[in-house]
What does this fold into?
Amino acid sequence: MTEKRKAILLSISLLIGFIIIGELVTGNGKRGGENLTEYQQLMGMGEPQAHVPGPLEVFKLGFKELSHPFYDNGPNDKGIGTQLFYSIARVLAGFSLAVLFALPIGFLIGMSPLFYKALQPYIQILKPVSPLAWMPLALFIIKDSIMSSVFVIFICSIWPMLINTAFGVMSVKKDWLNVGKTLEMGNFKTAFKVILPAALPTIFTGMRISMGISWLVIVAAEMLVGGTGIGYYVWNEWNNLDLSSVVFSILMIGIVGMFLDTIIAYFSTFFVYQE
Amino acid sequence: MSVKSLDNPYSEKSNLAHGAGCNCNSCNSNTVQTSSLPQNEEQIVNRVVETSIIKALFGGNDVKRRQFIKTVGESTFKAALLSVLPMGLLQSCANDTKKKTENGGATAKTTSKLEKTTLNIGFVPITCATPIIMSKPMGFYEKYGLNVDVIKTAGWAVARDKSLNKEYDASHMLTPMPLAMTMGAGSVASPYVMPAVENINGQAICLHLKHKDKRDPKQWKGFKFGVPFEYSMHNFLLRYYVAEFGLDPDKDIQIRVVPPPEMVANLKAGNLDGYLSPDPFNQRAVYENVGFLHMLTKDIWKGHPCCAFACSDEFVKTKPNTYSALFSAIIDATHYSSKLENRQAISEAIAPKNYLNQPASVIAQVLTGKYADGLGNIINEPDRIDFDPFPWHSMGVWILTQMKRWGYVKHDIDYKKIAEQVYLATDCASKMKEQGYEAPNITYKKHYIMNKEFDPSKPDEYVNSFAIKAI
It folds into this structure.
């Protein structure tokens, strides 16, 4: 058996084990039974109580939701597909904006040690700020909840790209630059022919980190401002203490996050080269 | 018959001197271009309003009018006139009055032109918002020609911000919020108005089941309580209630702001010992076997206001017809909700995911007032929640006294002035009468909160009469 097959087998048995244990430790929320008194009925004894769902219950719900992913029952109740679509659109908007700013500035910082030293303290202070801390400020200034979530994604995803771009540009081998010099390449040509290709793998790593952060941020942002998106979906289901839907959306958030990461990883393979 | 008197009054070419019985040659021959004349009844009324104002400007002298317009130009004249006169408003008033007299003065439905028919109205998913929410599935907005989307909102801070950002045309708010927003307490100052109250009563103090034996508030020292918002009746009623039992709400207990949907989960997790929150979350805690209902807020203040329908002062001024239609829909819906026999149907209409997203039986227990208290009893209190749109100024003054009492406003305030500016009691009364409902003729009355009298004419004495306060 090859290593790969072993890994797949182990993966599947972990999943089966997880499902069995999950089913054993969770209940179905049923209480009471037939012949309830009026008081028991009012207490909701005839209907299931809020509970942590077992894996099968989540799968069942997932099947139901995914067979109608784009239903529309009004502005506050849309299918999971529609909600994910809104979230992905916001993430892509914020992320692309961040790319537009991060790459040129990162390049500048990487090329000039002076800028690097001057901007370093600001970047280090702004980098660890939580997305939700930006939200009130964004809402107040931008005065639009959707644009505010896009802004929050922008401001949170810009730093890893900025730092990685700068780092990638800085760590281009001196030899390569010297070769460029002996060939009498201009500054502009050096930047695009030597530095950019050399720095691209590092830049892509930064983009992957940023995309991961954007996807983390959007859920929190949408839970806060509501309206549409997967974050709102989680909040709305939590409202009704419907944990099956919450667990299901956790799964969906994970899957979409992985998907986004894979796309960028796939693109980066075009720019990897062997020395 | 001459139709020339209905010709465009802004133009120097039209001659307005020809009345209905004019016998001059030009009127007898049918040479008048009818295309420039108003085509339907409403346009005719609009044209008459314009013409009479312009005629009055020139003292009825048509020659002077035509000379003047010829000198300055038609468009300049029109623009100058419209910049000083709210022509649209005058025209719609004239149309409304005309229709009212045609309908015998009763329940005149305003069909005059709506400035905006697609509206977004925010709500927080609680039973207090019943009239605002159920107007959508039960068609009250449609009846007044409005296409409204009711948008679910995570909490009141967001509802406030989205209203200030104009993402919402109007919103469900808590009765103290428009007062606080107008004064700039807790947000930027922006003039807000509250045309109508949504519900009265309808809140409860809910405690964790482990406190079953601690029914005397004196035993609550060190408790952690949740309220939905700082500027809420919930906060002010809870503070009032514990203070009457000798506890200082700022020192002896902890009051936290928790969004209503998170109350039950927090109670279950033990983060809260209890809360004074909007329903259905009190009843939901009972339903989930987590808590019990210590008391209903109607036993603190019978008929206290809770939630409100609010919008910006700007919306009222710039879109008077839309505002009026929306206001009518809300008043109708509020009266519909106040009838007990409709409550079961309403519960089912607002239970789905798009609205409250709660089990219908929980909502029905709140709205019908026949409920389980979590301690083994079925209680029947038909006035557990009720709906009454009239925004008493005295209620506004009471709320302001409590803001003052607990230090939310530090400076001296003119209680009556703010209450009268924000709570549109007289507008509401005339709207109610217009739609055939009974309305009070006064806007101030005495209230009794836990048997203590509140006299709205002596707000400062009232604040000073409390032993426990934060000033």
User: Anything to note?
Assistant: The longest helix of chain B spans residues 320-338. Chain B has a mean pLDDT of 83.
